Amino acid sequence: MSTLAEEFNAQAVFRGVPLAAQLDLTYRCNERCVHCYLDHDDAGEMTFAELDRLLGEMAAAGVFQLTLSGGEPLLRKDFFAIARRARELDFNLKLKTNGILIRAEAAAALRALCLDSIQMSIYSHRAEVHDAITKVPGSLARSLGAARFLIAQGLRVKFATVLMRQNRTDYPAVQALAQEIGAGFTLDPTVTPHINGDRSILALNIDSADLRGVMHDPLVTGDGASFCATPAGPGEDELNSFPCSAGHSACYISPYGEVYPCVQFPLACGNVRQQSFAAIWRDSPQLAEVRAVKIRDLPTCSVCPHAGTCTRCPGLAYMEGNLRGPSTADCEKSYARTGIPTAAMRRH
Amino acid sequence: MSDKFIRRSRETAARKLGDETMVLAILDSTLFSLNEVASIVWAAADGQTPLRTIVTNAIVPAFEVDAETAYRDALELVGELAREGILEVADAPLAPAATEPAGKQR
């Protein structure tokens, strides 16, 4: 039986409503994470007036879940004015931050905004590892301090750990630390390419043996038996389904007003400085192309035994050069999970 | 005649989707679905407009229902939403709602 949230999402896809959006307020950041997929220069961020207009357009178009992110969004001096405006427009507001600028006063101000949740990147429980990844001495202590301030205010905090060679053994301790202070925890086992197409940071990814270990770790995957089960192959329902919500009920907007299907899908669809958000969402040829692709339209993946269970990211596939091609990172995850090679792996 | 004043709780997020309204109680992440009539009441719950006025101006003409029956049903509805913690109900006007009504939808 589907949940109410799933029913709303299905209805949003049916009606062409962008139910969820991530809005990056800035690419500037006070950390310099070794695996970051962004540049940190300011190439002309939207002003408050532009953001105010955009938020109104997004609310009118039906955006309900709005994630404010960056860069470090709190580097904007008008961050609280923007967040307050978003809440006035009734968005369910989430925040991604490194927390470095959050002390007791900022935490109280965030609580007053009635945020849904706050996600913070914590790479390790060991300061020497976390701080080496962020390249900011003292950053782990600052981020954990922020998490404590936020939790003390009754806000929901989640730690997100991206796994890399540097921190590959640390996630159980981060998960325990999260539990100890009352935060949630999520793990991303893969580094993604730079948004400019540079793939050199993928060298930071953990090796296949470590990935297999993570995929079989009950701490991460819960019910390992079903998570790692041999895939049954796709049925008609799976073949007729869409790869993910990107461009269907979700989108991403850069600090410069560019609209993309997802933060991980750098296919430019328009700019809200030139067109309304609704016009881009409704009329963009690029979004139309993304929406036209069903699993059965993927030449390699539609015949893959993992097609019904794979987390294939169309944005990563696009960054590999083919919107309808496989995503190597997801092939690797499917293989690590089940031990069954994907169709793309068999071709090579 | 006594009346009620209603205001959307500030710890909610909401958006219209078709004829329905999604309302999220942020504190416990409970999601509610309001039907067409409840959506009208929700959008008008500014803390200032008497419930009877909302019913008379927005519900009676739209649904061609008897005003007294519609008001009794509306009272029951706002009671339910108040018990769920997403609506405040009072016998006197409340300070205006902090949030604007959910955006209009196709």
Strand-helix topology:
The complex is a heterodimer of chains A (348) and B (106).
Chain A: H1 4-15, E1 20-24, H2 48-61, E2 65-69, H3 79-88, E3 92-96, H4 104-112, E4 117-121, H5 127-134, H6 139-152, E5 157-162, H7 171-181, E6 184-188, H8 208-215, H9 218-221, H10 224-227, H11 236-239, E7 250-253, E8 258-260, E9 270-271, H12 277-283, H13 285-292, H14 314-319, H15 328-338, H16 343-347
Parallel strand pairs in A: 1-2, 1-7, 2-3, 3-4, 4-5, 5-6
Antiparallel strand pairs in A: 7-8, 8-9
Helix pairs in contact in A: 2-3, 8-15
Chain B: E1 5-8, E2 12-17, E3 20-25, E4 30-34, H1 36-43, E5 46-50, H2 51-63, H3 67-83, E6 87-90
Antiparallel strand pairs in B: 1-5, 1-6, 2-3, 3-4
Helix pairs in contact in B: 2-3
Question: How does this structure look, described?
Answer:
The complex is a heterodimer of chains A (348) and B (106). By secondary structure, chain A is of the alpha/beta class. Chain A has helices spanning 4-15, 48-61, 79-88, 104-112, 127-134, 139-152, 171-181, 208-215, 218-221, 224-227, 236-239, 277-283, 285-292, 314-319, 328-338, 343-347; strands at residues 20-24, 65-69, 92-96, 117-121, 157-162, 184-188, 250-253, 258-260, 270-271. The longest helix of chain A has 14 residues, at 48-61. Chain A is globular and about 55 Å long. With 106 residues, chain B is α+β, with helices and mostly antiparallel strands. A three-stranded antiparallel β-sheet of chain B has the order 5-1-6. Chain B has a three-stranded antiparallel β-sheet with strand order 2-3-4. In chain B, a hairpin with a 4-residue loop joins strand 3 and strand 4. The model of chain B is unreliable at 101-106 (pLDDT under 50). Chains A and B meet through helix 1 and helix 2 of A and strand 2 and strand 4 of B.
